[in-house]
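Try it yourself: sequence plus PRP, in.
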Amino acid sequence: MTAITIPPLSSGLVRVLIDADTIQRRVTELARIITKDYKDVEDLVLVGVLKGSFILLSDLSRKLGVTHSVDFIALSSYGNSEKSTGNVRMIMDVRENLADKHVLIIEDILDSGYTLDYLKRNFESRRPASLKTVALLDKPDRRVVEVEVDYIGFEIPDVWVVGYGLDYAEKYRTLPYIAEMEPV
Ligand code: PRP
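Structure, out:
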């Protein structure tokens, strides 16, 4: 087996906030809990919110011990800015009909709450059998809209973070760790 090379911190990255092993352990733990919670459920669909959730969804999905399908939705409210506009736009909808399905939304980060609030309202109107949410990271200090999340990986302080799906101007998404960065 080939050893995995951990990329060094590049310029602009201040420190590793959550290392790769810690992320993997927490994702495994979340998968164990979710597997238990959905053990008697048929028609579970994981919906990844693009782009940021693509790595979490692929790791979590492969660790789940329950049969499920995967789908994706693309939303955006940030563009290349640091602050959510609050104006959430749907760029691409899911392909599956969510009616009567057990839907689990997969998010990389909960910040202002605008995105998840929009998505939960939107999905509720499609009459799913159940609707729950996973967010790897939660920045409670940034919340503008109160939104309930069922499975949270880590609470983090109000710093700009990249890696494990999260970007800065489309860079750093494939880092295996979460790093704090100082936007330039
Ligand atoms: C990020 C992130 C969440 C959302 C959370 O998406 O992936 O979807 O912001 O922020 P909020 O709680 O303030 O709404 P972004 O719009 O940056 O798109 P991306 O996932 O394609 O990078």
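One thing you can check immediately is this: Residues 49-52, 76-78, 84, 107-115, 167 surround PRP (CB under 6 Å).
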